[in-house]
Amino acid sequence: MTDSHLMNTYARLPIAFERGEGAWLFDEHGKRYLDAVAGIAVCSLGHADPVLAEAICDQARKLVHTANLGHIRLQEQLAEQLCEISALDKAFITNTGAEAWECAFKIARRYGHSRNVDTPKVIVVEGAFHGRTLAAISASAPGKLQAGFEPVLDGFIRVPFDDAGAMKQALAENPDAVAVMLEPIQGEGGVRIPGDGYLAALRRACDEHEALLILDEIQTGMCRTGRWFCHQHDNAVPDVMTVAKALGNGIPVAACLARGAAAEVLTPGSHGTTFGGSPFACRAALTVIARMRELNLAEHARTMGNTLREHLHQRLDGHPRLKEIRGRGLMIGVELTGPAMDVRDFALQNGVLINVTHDTVIRLVPPLIIDADQARQIADTVAEGIVSST
């Protein structure tokens, strides 16, 4: 069997996985791999979690889908749970991170028009990645994402990441800027972590100019950084937030959350979804949240993240290929002084699945359930891959 009938949109690894168990993946030949990708920060409970598996099987026997023409009680329960852990007021449940982001962008536009701003603009940051839709690539870092898809959407103002002064200046100089939109940690941009107080400073600046603070927590949310959401480290509650990836542990489900005025701008007919908020997807997400509480995965992510980073430092500090190790919880970037794909290939050969972003950054986002031995195995394999190619 080949992929000749698939559109050529991925540079796939020479491997096919057919089952998983906890933090392990097994290929079609039975070889075992320690998963430090987790479906790109999706499978935080690991693979084949028995409680989640039973819940989705039970729901599949009851009801998979019904249109949003009537009440969906599981959707209402999920919205309540998400608002409880985020301190926001209302939720729109959809399928994917890109759709949640589009909802957030539409909220920003409509909020601007509600303030009589004819051409509302959104301030975004350099190095951003918000998805693959046309609006999302327009807001993301210029370059290969947009190549061949021009003209991109206008209405964005771009400022440097981790520069609160530049953001304050942009808000002051652009009265038609109605929102600030960014990732608390840039994932695809290379696991770039802003300094302490950055998000809090943006919160104050947005309040001063009556602009919305919109946070893309699609990759950083759901305990990945050691809190339910990354902005909680900085005590900077957003007006709008997107969440996806780990919310369903592989079942497509996402949400756009909002509070205050931002939670009221969408009205019947202004937005919608066919598949979003189905009983099946919401049952999965509710089970994920319950399992994260039960396993205390926020605390566990902090502990295992510290273990993994400490072991990387022990093995790599002072090595000429290493530029920096950075991370929060179990979202870790190992930046090299040059390309890092050889390390990815070495790790794959040695039974550890990792990926590389921004060409030089090894991104480690394993399932949040990993234990200390698995954290050290990931660190050792990465270190050996770096050293062996010197």
Instruction: Report the CATH topology name of the largest domain.
Output: Aspartate Aminotransferase, domain 2
**What is the CATH-assigned architecture of the largest domain?**
3-Layer(aba) Sandwich
What portion of residues belong to β-strands? Answer: 15-25%
How does the major sheet shape up? 7 strands, mixed
Q: Please identify the top-level CATH class of the largest domain.
A: Alpha Beta
- By DSSP, the count of extended strands is 15
Task: Give the termini distance in whole angstroms.
Answer: 37 Å
Shape: globular
**Average residue pLDDT:** 97
- Unreliable stretches: none
Strand neighbour order, sheet with most strands? 4-10-9-8-7-5-6
Q: Which class best fits the helix and strand makeup?
A: alpha/beta
Task: Describe this entry's structure for a reader.
The protein has 390 residues and is an alpha/beta fold. The protein folds into 2 domains: 17-49 and 296-388, Alpha-Beta Complex (Aspartate Aminotransferase, domain 1), CATH 3.90.1150.10; 63-295, Aspartate Aminotransferase, domain 2. It has helices at 38-41, 50-62, 73-86, 97-114, 134-139, 164-173, 198-209, 279-295, 297-316, 341-349, 372-388, and strands at 17-21, 24-27, 32-35, 90-94, 121-125, 156-159, 177-182, 212-216, 240-243, 254-258, 322-328, 331-336, 352-353, 355-357, 361-364. The longest helix is centred in the last third of the chain and has 20 residues, at 297-316. The mean pLDDT is 97.
